[in-house]
Amino acid sequence: MQIDKLTYRSVRTRAALLPLTRPVVARVGEFREWPVILIDLETEEGITGTSYLEPYLANSVKYIRPAIHDLIDRRKGEVIAPATDFYTHRKMLNLIGLQGVATIAVSGIDMAAWDALSKAANMPLARLLGGSTDPIPAYNSNGLWLTPVDTLEQEAADLKGEGNFDALKLRIGREYLADDLRALEAVRKGAGSDVKLMCDFNQGQTIGEALSRCHALDDSGLYWFEEPIPYDQIPGYVQLARELKTPVQLGENFYGPRSLYEAVTARAGDYMMPDLMRIGGVTGWLHAASIAGSAGIPISSHLYPEFSAHLLAVTETAHWLEWQDWVNPILQEPFKLSDGTLAIPETAGAGIEWDELAVKKFEMDI
Q1: Cα–Cα distance, 72 to 69 (Å, whole number)
Q2: Which listed CATH number (3.30.497.10, 3.20.20.120, 3.40.190.10, 3.30.1330.60) goes with 128-342?
Q3: Is the pTM of this model over 0.90?
C-alpha cells in the first residue's frame, strides 16, 4: 500500500559505540571504537524513517541528539517534504552557524525523511530518486592505516579478498618519504601490482610538506591524493591541483553544497567526495552532485555506504563508493559485496534495519 503523504510525529535517537575490526590510526587520531547515532523518524502514518550519523567523537553525541529532537519537536504534525525541509531546518539553526552540529543534525533528519518517503512509496531510495539499483563500484577502506609497514602486505591481501576488490585506500604521510614508498610496495605486493590505490593524507601536511611529498610520489601511479592539507586551505589546494599529475581529491569536510561550489569554482580539486553528515544528507548531496556534474567533476562518497550507494546511482559524474563495514554489527542485513561492487537491495527505503539485540549490546548510556 502506498501513502500519499507523511507527517512528522516524533524522533527516537540512540547512541552506540561499535568495535572496529582494524583500529583507525591516522593523522587525525586513533580510534578503536566508533560512535554512531541511530535515528528513527516516526510519522503519524506509522512509517518510520531510519538513518544514522557517525560523529567521530563519542562526547559529540551529547550535543547532536538534542538538536535533532528540537527540530522535530518544532515540526510535529507538519508534512514531510525533505527538499523544502532542508532549508527550513537550516534557517531554524542559522543564527548559531551552518557548520558543525547544525548541519549534522539537519543531515541526519534529511536522510531519515527520504528513507520514510521511499518506504511509503514502496520503492528503493534509488528508484524513488529516478535511478536504478545496479551495483555500485567500490573500493575497500577498511584498513591500511598508519600502522607498521610490515603489516600492510598481508592486510592488503585480506582487504582485497573481502569483496574481490581491485581498489583499496591507503593512508600515507608518514614522517619519512621512504616509509611511504615502502608502504606502497608492501600493499602492491599483497594486493597485486595492478591494484588501484586511493591515497589519503587525512589533512596531515602543511602546504610545504604536501608540495614536497606529493611531487615525490607523483610518478608512483597512485589513483588520487586525498586531503593532503587542512580542508579549508583552498588556495593551497588550487596550487596542488595545478602542479600535480596525480588527481587531487577533497570534499569530505565541506558543510553544505555551497562549500563544494566554492571549491569547484576555485578549481581546488580534480575530484570531490562529499560526506552525507556534513553535505546535508540526501538533499545536500543532490545539490552538490548537480554542481559537480555541471563542472564535469567526478564525485565519490565518504562513509555511509548504504545511503551513498543509492545516491551514486543518480549522480551524473558518479565515481567511487567508499566501503567500510563499521556499522554492519548493528544492521539486520548488511549490503552485499561482489567483485568490487556494492549491491543495492530491492527493498523499500535505503535498506537499513537495526539488529535490536546488537544495538542493546553496544548502546551508550549518554
Answers
A1: 5
A2: 3.20.20.120
A3: yes
